[in-house]
Write the structure tokens for this entry.
Amino acid sequence: MSAIVAIVGRPNVGKSTFFNRLIQRREAIVDAVSGVTRDRHYGKSDWNGVEFSLIDTGGYVLGSEDVFEAEIDKQVELAIDEADAIIFMVDVESGVTGMDEDVAKLLRRVDKPTFLVVNKVDNAKRAEDAVEFYSLGLGDYFTIASINGSGTGDLLDAVVKVLPEKEKENDDLPRFAVVGRPNAGKSSFINALIGEERYIVTDVAGTTRDSIDTKYNRFGFEFNLVDTAGIRRKAKVKEDLEFYSVMRSVRAIEHADVCILMLDATRGFDGQVENIFWLAQRNNKGIVILVNKWDLVEDKETNTIKEYTTRIKQAIAPFTDVPIIFISVLTKQRIFKAIETAVEVYNNRARKIQTRKFNDVMLPIIENNPPPAYKGKFVKIKFCTQLPTPYPQFAFFCNLPQYVRDPYKRFLENKLRENFNFEGVPISVFMRKK
């Protein structure tokens, strides 16, 4: 799995602009809390062939400055806990602030690669002004301008040098990660499967720990369960728990073949669950959605499951070919069906289609429904094949690949799913020059 780089610092120093530049698109995963506006950003980036996950710890707008500082401290501590490298961003326009000094004080106490980055340095005068940031006691700094990318190359050269090498797995067993919000029943689900009560991971929030694999070998199935349910009790501050949960999910998703996304039926498929779903989708992992605590849903009627499923599929569109199973860990209702489905999704993700068979199925469909003309140009697709990658990717060879628009690619994906079983697995479609 790739390394994690955390961007920390007070609000309004340009972290989100820097983040969007690195992931090469404007994107923000938002977690709204009553009375507080907070953005959580998660994405993947790479530099010189080195992939890493990027986390922006976001900013806050709170009424009290004391609470403000306390919340920033918690965010930085949690980011430090999980990250392999830390980018501490400050703003040359504002100079050194008390909040910068508080964050620097935390960073000086940890033994992790830390990069002090002075943002908004877009002229020689500001480069001179940046000297004052030596007072933070973090050594040399990098000067950048997030808005135009100036200086980011030198910074990223230094960052990727300190990141750990990609880990090699010890065995070839499938890895299923159980992810989701806190208190959705993840720990209980794993305990029910393995047949014993145990804390898979320490229950102390804020301590450094790795995901622990639990080997499952029953009823003809053998795989590793990657548990992210490390926090078994509510932390003193709910927001700590929420943020920590997502950081654990980032690592677990990187580590897994299939993500078992568990949600609490009484809470619904809310924004936080949706965020974790799209993390798994962007990482090309197999996905199974488990709606737990179905026994607690009151006033169930004939169409309740159908309506609940429809709401989830509306939230995850256009990637709706995902199994959704309604379970109760407490009564063990359908928990083994959940595992059977996860194994099926794992097999779907590894599915390889013979090139001849693939062409026999897809070329007649394309002939009957060719790509629409674009700018007076007609696209002719002559050949298609599955690429030799760990997850399903398909290349369609044609005369003018640049004129094939996204709606037609989605049409091809839908036809792929109609003719071949890729339930629960993201598919990538590429157009290539013949």
In short: Residues 26-40, 60-64, 198-211, 229-238 have pLDDT under 50 and may be disordered. The chain is about 35% helix and 20% strand. Residues 65-82 form the longest helix (18 residues).
